[in-house]
Amino acid sequence: MGILLVRLDSELEEKLQYLMEKRKIKDKSAYIRQLISESLTKELLDYLCKEVSKRKISAWKAAEIAKISLRAMLKELSERNIPSFDEIAFKEDLLLL
């Protein structure tokens, strides 16, 4: 596991402390890791969905990069009204046969 040192300004520290108190969280490091993980996952999915919408990658490839099932990726795309099957996906499927 890598080590990352981060300085929080007083506003972020207050928000963090508030949430930790209300949610009765004791392990600050674990909580921050959870928040970072959730944020990175969201950011990655945002990026991958944009790449699929631009037809730079297929839904299958996006799911592979995000390490989620194709079904989960298709659901994510559907929720964003992004078509999930196009010529790139068709060609990739043909290569798998």
Structure description:
There is one protein chain. With 97 residues, this protein is mainly α. The protein has one domain (10-96). The chain is built from five helices and no strands. The protein has helices spanning 10-22, 28-53, 59-66, 70-79, 87-96. The N and C termini lie far apart (39 Å). The model has no long low-confidence stretch (mean pLDDT 90).
What would a concise description of this structure say?
This protein is an all-alpha fold.
How much is the radius of gyration in Å? 18 Å
What is the total number of structural domains? 1
Gap between N and C termini: 39 Å
Low-confidence segments:
none
Write down the overall geometry. elongated
* Beta content: under 5%
Total helical elements: 5
Major beta sheet, specifics? none
Instruction: Please count the beta strands (DSSP E, at least 2 residues each).
Output: 0
Helix content: 55-70%
